[in-house]
Amino acid sequence: MSKNIDLRTTFNKVTTLYDSVRPHYPEQLFDNLIETAQLQKDAKLLEIGPGTGQATKPFVKRGFNITAVELGNDLADFVRKKFADNNNFKVITGAFENIDLKDKSFDLIYSATAFHWIKSEIKFSKPYEILKKGGHLAIIHTNHVSKEKEDKFFYACQPIYKKYKPGGKYNDKLKPILEKELKPKEYDNNFFEQVLFETYPVDISYSADEYIKLLNTYSPTLSMETEQRNKFLNEIKELINNKFDGNIEKNFAMSLTILRKKDSQ
Length: 265
What we know:
globular; single chain; 26% strand; Rossmann fold
């Protein structure tokens, strides 16, 4: 792994692949979000890190006014073209930390599997400033879970992860987590109060080739040196083909945390 690489930019290299293989978010998640945040048709939304627009599309098709802030140039171009026919959608290219946005101008700020990349010193203070009175911050995350603690594939691939350390690190105490064990991440209660936390299961079957494509969209994998990455992926592929008959089921749980702006402005 290159010591100077900014992991936030790695997805910019695999835009089309990312769009085709990443698990999508259930419609029920967005229905619950809109209902809980009590969004009206004229609501103004800000999306942090739209990527290829997987969490953008449900809001676009519902007719909301959306501004998206995307760090990667290729991703920004991709999502801009994807929704080119929608006049209520625009993309600003740059880091959320550095973009100037008008105070008290958005009804909802949301981020799907990208909020963890925001620098901690402004992660909650900046959304607080640019949300309207009573506005909401929604954090969506893709969680890797197991249906049972004895997750055979999880434990079978751990020696490979230990050997190659994608992302430059390895946690040998890591254990499978069940959906029911998921909890909301900590937030700054000086700025927000939590009004909802829900999880939504998504189970997907992958062939060895399909799973390798998925791994090739994760920042720890992308940050590896090419030779090491290829060896790592080949061993994972061989494991699936030889020990799991060429097919595995991956269990995800999409989590939704909704925070309400905590002030009387």
